[in-house]
Amino acid sequence: MSGTPVSRITHYRGRSDTGAIDASPTFIAAEDTPFSVTIGTAFRIRIGVENTGTGTDTITAPDTTRGIQRCGQPAAAFSSLANVINGADAGSSADAANVATQRLTNGTGTFETGVAGYDENESLSTTSTNGRFTEVEFGVVLTGGASTVGVGGGESWTFEVGGLTNASANVPTFTTPDTNGTNFQHGNQLGGAGQSVANSATISMTTGADIRANNLVVVCVSCDNNGTTDADLSEVSGVTCGGVAMAKAKEFTFGSPGAQASATVSMWWLQHSSQINSGSTITATFTTATTSGDANCIQAREFVVAASKTVAVEATNSTGVTAAQVASIDATTSNIECLRIAAYAYESPVGTRANDILFSSSDWSGWWTSALLTVSTGSGVSGMNLIVEGNISTGTGKAARLGATASTRDFAQVYVAFRADAAAGGGQPIVARAGGVDFMHSIGRMAQNIKVWFQGLFPDLGMA
Question: For 274-297, what is each residue's pLDDT tens digit?
Answer without folding.
Answer: 999 999 999 999 988 766 667 888
